[in-house]
Write a structure and sequence with these properties.
With 300 residues, the chain is α+β, with helices and mostly antiparallel strands. It has a domain of 174 residues: Elongation Factor Tu (Ef-tu), domain 3 (Beta Barrel). Helix content is 26%, strand content 29%. It has 3 helices and 13 strands. The strands form 3 sheets. The chain has a 6-stranded antiparallel β-barrel. Strands 1-7-4-5-6 form a 5-stranded mixed sheet, covered by helices on one side. Strands 9-10 form a two-stranded antiparallel sheet. The radius of gyration is 51 Å and the shape is extended.
């Protein structure tokens, strides 16, 4: 019995050592298998994620393109606005309180509400300051402007000498005065800018009406005239012009035949638009005078 026990005891540690060695050998193998499995699964998972991202990316883009979000308009605060630098004025250009322009005809334009506005087109020929009148010398303040150089045949020494400083070698065809307080820096030879008038300005318009010559009372004053038939012998005549012996004269102001038209007409009107690129000014309504007549526009 003693020998058998001894053999069992000797075999027991051997078996235990075998089991522990088997466990030790199996443990690293299992660990290596797990790590290899994890390594093999990790790139697969990453590739799947990247593939999923790639496939999902165009879907998001299509959604954005199909239904873009409306961006709210940015409202600039008054503090954030940058102060614009003031534009330097050209020393050769001056702005006055009025202009002279030439009548060219009538047209019509439409405003923002679609309303039709009849307008008269005035052509602006560049005006040049030819003389400055002061209170010390002339007794009043005014700026004399001139335009359109004269022909050699119509020129003379006086005109040549007066308009030489303003750039007209043979004198100017016409010159007019604009009565106003003298602007700062005004000098002879400066050009008057068309921007002296702006859209929406109320101006006093002055011009000469059409001359119609010597006319009768029907045309001049709108008399009805007499019967046109049955031997009245009074169709377009003047008729009685006064009483008998008392007062024995024609009263002043009696409407009779005479020169009709070519009168100075003045009224207030509005500037519809100013077109610097075409040198044109649009005035609301009719303007007195024939085509190519000179019209004065003064700010009110």
């Amino acid at each position: 019995m003693s020998n058998e026990n001894k053999e069992k005891k000797a075999e027991a540690p051997k078996a235990e050592t075998k089991k522990t060695e088997a466990k030790k050998t199996e443990a690293p193998k299992a660990e290596t298998k797990k790590t290899e499995a994890k390594k093999a699964e990790a790139p697969k998972a990453e590739t799947k994620k990247t593939e999923a991202k790639k496939t999902e990316a165009p879907k998001v883009e299509t959604k954005k393109t199909e239904a873009p979000k409306a961006e709210a308009p940015k409202v600039e605060k008054p503090e954030e606005k940058k102060a614009e630098a003031p534009k330097e004025k050209d020393p050769n250009i001056v702005e006055l309180q009025g202009l002279f322009a030439v009548k060219k005809g009538m047209s019509s334009v439409y405003d923002e509400n679609g309303k039709r506005i009849p307008v008269t087109v005035l052509k602006y020929d560049t005006l040049v300051v030819s003389q400055i009148k002061s209170e010390k010398k002339e007794g009043y303040q005014a700026v004399q402007v001139a335009s359109a150089e004269r022909n050699l045949a119509a020129s003379n020494k006086a005109c040549e000498g007066h308009f030489k400083k303003s750039g007209f070698q043979r004198g100017a065809k016409w010159s007019k005065e604009i009565r106003q307080t003298l602007p700062d820096g005004v000098s002879v030879g400066q050009k008057v800018s068309i921007s002296s008038l702006a859209k929406g300005d109320t101006v006093k318009m002055t011009g000469r009406s059409k001359g119609r010559g010597f006319s009768g009372v029907v045309k001049r004053w709108g008399f009805a005239g007499g019967p046109a038939s049955h031997g009245s012998r009074f169709q377009r005549g003047t008729g009685s012009i006064g009483q008998c012996t008392f007062p024995g004269r024609v009263m002043k102001g009696r409407k009779m035949p005479g020169r009709y038209g070519f009168d100075t007409m003045t009224r207030n009107t509005q500037v519809v638009d100013v077109l610097p690129e075409k040198n044109a000014i649009l005035i609301k309504g009719a303007v007195p005078g024939a085509v190519n007549s000179l019209i004065q526009l003064m700010k009110v």
